Amino acid sequence: MMKTISKNIWWIYDKCKSSFRWISFIVLIGSILSIINVIKSLVSKSLIDAATQNASDKIIRWIIILGLLLLSNIALSSINTIASTYVCENIRNNMQCKLYNHIIHSTWSEHNKYHSVELLTRINNDVNTITSMITSTLPGIISLIVMLISSFFALLSISLTMSLVSISIFPLLILLSKVYGRKLHYFYIEIQKKETLYNRFLQESFNNILIVKSFCLENNRYRYLKKIQIEKLNLSIKKSYFSSMSNGFLALSSLLGYFVVFIWGTINLSIVGVSAFGDLTAMFQLFSNIQIPIYGLSSSFPQLISALSATDRLIEIENMALENFPSNIEDSIVSIEHRYDEIATTINNEIYFENVEFGYIPTVPILKNISFSINCGETIGLIGPSGEGKTTLIRLLLCLIHPNSGNIYIDGQNLNTNHRKLISYVPQGNTLFSGSILDNLKFGNPDANENEIIEALKMSSALDFVNSLPNKLNTLIGEKGIGLSEGQAQRLTIARAFLRKKPILILDEATSSLDYKTELNVLNEIKNLIPKPICIIITHRPSALSICDKIYKLENNNISLYTSYP
């Protein structure tokens, strides 16, 4: 247990060490504010003592000092708030950027282990939990400890008995923390799981609203939503009940301490007289300054446990295996771009699959002993029944997955993730982003100029419909291309691929939503591309196969050259 906690603390430190100076500054300001609160209690005592003695000079002096302390409190509190906001946002942004960078550079198979909402919940909720602990809870704990220690010694100077009474609650706090920690860890993990399930349900319901409506599932989905909410509510109530019981014991101990201080002060006041009034006032304030940190430490403990639990979940994300890049991702990207900027727009040799075998489950192969080649400038078609491995073969070529055995070569080099820079890909389905049409096209080539964009739209038969839109290229489209027909969305994804201008062009059922005439226009543009790329077309349509130099058929886990198309 301690080893895990130490690992988590080190992980948090490693992510936040660049902001260490700012965190130290916040801690320093908080500690000064705690000391000011203690000094205010002693100044109040001196002011009351001066008033009971009718010492006018002392009264004025202590009033001025008290006023300066109050002004200092206000100024430092404002500075602390501004600094905390800056540090909080800075740490959150840095941590989210690092996690995002790791996620998008992890292997494709690792992504399949997590629902997208699971990743979203962790990168938002868990990062927020840790950030809050670093910038609020931790500085608060240190400030409370400073207040506790300084108040204890100040109270000790007035009464040894009362100072010991004030910290008598500590043994109870330590006892509760042992039980409290395990329970809170459990509650945090379970609540986050339910939160992920809840968000996942909402996302999938909205993304698939057409299915929900067409299958008349509105009431069914609503009932399921209520079920998830009730489960979340029950967990929250259990956590709240547990917290209330623990805090109740602490509150009872504190009230007993106040009762003792009040009885002791009353008796002392009746014996000594009005001269003890200043001591009694200071004791109440100092006792409060000791009890407040104890309460604060108690309430901070759940936040610490939540942060450590959140760290476990983020470490799990960081353990997602990266693609075949060096350990420093950013340096790797620079290295890749430098290396492949020198590659010509055409491939001099071939793509070669040599005895490739693959199965998502190793004991259930999809491809067996696959060997074939594609020469420079060739257009090949891939056909075969659904589920026979056509898209799997493309994923192998994109290096999203890796052969269980055998090798794949491009230009005589073993295929690796760096070769993606040579590929322009049009996947199945609608893969447009929300935003403008222009932004979507520039995913293919961020530096494309206006003439290149117009040419790509012409080649994909998309220019006419884009120009007919009110805002043309600046027209905003919704998630998954909402606002466009399937055919229009498909033409834009083809234009995006044309704009990328790479020596390998892959089309996975890329013309399935196009009418016959539009499809022929697009296919002719592909046929006449200069320079001529290697083009791989997955299709069931004879019109697409008509431009192919060779056709390969995938069936029964094997590949064979097909001499004619249906």
UniProtKB/TrEMBL annotation:
Question: Mind telling me which residue stretches traverse the membrane in this protein?
Answer: 20-39, 59-76, 130-149, 155-176, 248-267
| Domain ABC transmembrane type-1, first and last residues per copy | 25-306
UniProt keywords (A-Z) are: ATP-binding, Hydrolase, Membrane, Nucleotide-binding, Transmembrane, Transmembrane helix
Mention any one GO cellular component term assigned to this protein in its UniProt record: plasma membrane
Which principal EC class is assigned to this enzyme? hydrolase
Q: Where in the cell is it found?
A: Cell membrane
- Record's bilayer topology term: Multi-pass membrane protein
Which Enzyme Commission numbers does its entry carry? 3.6.3.-
Q: Which Pfam families match?
A: ABC_membrane, ABC_tran
PROSITE patterns in the record: ABC_TM1F (PS50929), ABC_TRANSPORTER_2 (PS50893)
Annotated Gene3D superfamilies: ABC transporter type 1, transmembrane domain, P-loop containing nucleotide triphosphate hydrolases
Report domain ABC transporter positions: 351-566
One MF term from GO for this chain? Answer: ATP binding
Q: What is this protein called?
A: Putative multidrug export ATP-binding/permease protein
